[in-house]
Amino acid sequence: MTQATHALPRMQMMSEAQCELIHQASLEILRSTGVRVFHRGALDLLAHAGAVVSDDNLVKIPPEMVEWALRQAPSRVALCRRGSSQAAARLEGDEVSFGTGSDCLHVLDPRTGLHRDFTVKDVVECIRLVDALPELSFCMSMGIPSDAGPGSHYRRQFALMLEHTVKPMVFVCNDRADCEAIVAMAAAVAGGPEALRLNPNLLLYSEPSTPLRHSETATDKLLYMAEVGLPITHSPAPMMGGTAPVTLAGGLALGNAEVLSSLVMHQLRRPGAPFVYAVQVHHLDMRTMISVYGAPEYQLGRAMSAEMARHYGLPIWGNAGMSDACAMDEQAAIDSAVSVLGALLTRTHLAHDVGYLEGGLTTSPEMIVLTAENIAMLRHFAEGASLDAEALALDLIHQVGPGGDYIAEKHTARHFRDYWQPRLFSRQRLDDWIRGGQKRLGDRLRDKTLALMESHQPEPLPQGVWQAIDDILKKGDA
Fold first, then answer.
1. Is residue 167 one of the residues assigned to a domain?
2. Alpha carbon distance 33, 160 (integer Å)
């Protein structure tokens, strides 16, 4: 459908000239200020390519190296269903996919309403919840189980995701050894390393250290993912007023320099390896000294980051469905809706953290389900409205004329299902609502969340694959 026949809501923060202004500022940071790189192999790559290394690990990167790296990186990435070539999340064009966050300490138990430590059972139930909700396209681990036992909890979390969802997985991990084990597990399911590279069902989320530092461990993971040709988002989180200038422009320019220097190292290791852009600009609330999610400045930072990714022609990583609220309350609902709408209007390809409360310390299964309803509703808004001849319906208007009605018309029968229908929100009037038990949104939300957690059964792993995964876990423990 052409733009002339479709009205589409959009959000644009910056013009191309303004994006170029941020880009040039970041190039100047890399050329003049430089970045600290604490990885010997990366230092050798950079020096050999023409960067200037001094003071043991201070790297100053010429603009032409950055421009070269931007030309190498692919503009699209597809994340596939488990063991399949079917794309479940497309990081290209106007596509927007949503998923959960990772590694919270606490779960807000929908059965008791209490905050408590995550258990393995909680992680499994949350993964199955993601698998059950069609509005969510990818999964992250959501919680650190307190009863997981010895060994790497990152590897065990990934194994649980492999077992309990067919959706693509975004993982985090401690070091290169974790990366290698996790990729080996994914390859066992995909049918080998080459099959996994062609049909990736995983993406690594890692970070440089703001301001302007690349740790040995984080860089090791960055280079490994390039070597195996699997997607990564290496996303800085500048905290404005703390680890970055207090202004959005300064925080974005700094974070963008960190992304670009990461991209240079990544592409030097393997030109054309898939890389997903993000700068997660936060600000430090000077009254509480915490990093804020539910703030207009945070949403502006997400929009500006998306603009920069689109300016570079790179896939976009962002956030949605999270809140600073400690309970699944009205504040959390508002934060969820605002952030989901922002992700849709900025066409953020992957929006994670659905279900986060307490600024990312708590996962709420109910917040996940509520955000799924928000996604379904607001996606209809973001898809806009048709203006073609069928939608204008001029012939029908002439036919029905003044004083007529349209309820029995074939045109109505063809299109009434185009309207969004809620599965959680209520459209009852008072008498029907009273007869139905006077259930508020929170009551319906809890009922739906528990029903999905207790009833949904994911597609099982192919026979024999679990043994290969278990062998990889045992080898790591040894």
1. yes
2. 43
CA triplet 156, 328, 140: central angle to 5 degrees? 25
Find the mean pLDDT for residues 326-336. Answer: 97
Could you give the number of structural domains in the chain?
3
Exposure of 14 in the CB half-sphere (CA atoms within 13 A): 23
Q: Give the H/E segment covering residue 7.
A: strand 6-7
The answer as to whether 237 is a domain residue is yes
Decide if pLDDT at 136 tops 90.
Answer: yes
Considering only CA atoms, give the Rg of the chain. Answer: 24
Identify the residue whose tokens are 């679990």: 466
- How many Å apart are CA 302 and CA 318, to the nearest integer? 7
Tell me, yes or no, whether 414 lies in a domain. yes
Burial label, 473 (beta-carbon count in 10 A; 0-12, 13-18, 19+): middle
| DSSP character at residue 313 | T
Lowest mean pLDDT among 43-47, 148-152, 153-157, 270-274: 148-152
Which H helix or E strand runs over 99? strand 97-100
Give the distance, in angstroms, between the CA of residue 29 and the centroid of all CA atoms in the same chain: 27
The least confident of 48-52, 190-194, 308-312, 474-478 is 474-478
133, 195: one domain: yes
> CATH number of the domain that 295 lies in?
3.20.20.480
Which residues have C-beta within 8 Å of that of residue 404, sequence separation ≥ 6? none
Rounded to whole angstroms, how far apart are CA atoms 323 and 346? Answer: 19
Separation of alpha carbons 398 and 22, rounded Å? 54
Which candidate, 267, 349, 342, places its Cα nearest to that of 314? Answer: 349
Concatenated DSSP letters for 428-477? --HHHHHHTT---HHHHHHHHHHHHHHH--PPPPPTTHHHHHHHHHHHHH
Q: Do residues 8 and 96 make contact, with C-beta atoms less than 8 angstroms apart?
A: no
| pLDDT value of position 460 | 93
CB-count burial class (<10 Å; 0-12, 13-18, 19+) for 194? exposed
Q: What is the mean pLDDT of residues 83-104?
A: 96
- CA nearest to 461, candidates 171, 245, 160, 169: 160
Residues 62 and 170 in one domain: no
Last residue of some domain: 50, 71, 92? Answer: 71
Q: Where are the alpha helices (DSSP H) in 278-436?
A: 296-312, 330-345, 365-382, 389-392, 394-400, 410-415, 430-435
Tell me the average pLDDT of the chain. 96
In this prediction, residue 1 carries a pLDDT of 47
Residues 124 and 29 in one domain: no
Supply the range of the domain harboring residue 407.
385-418
Domain identity same for 81 and 163: yes
The answer to whether position 438 is within a domain reads: no
Q: Report which residue type is found at 41.
A: G
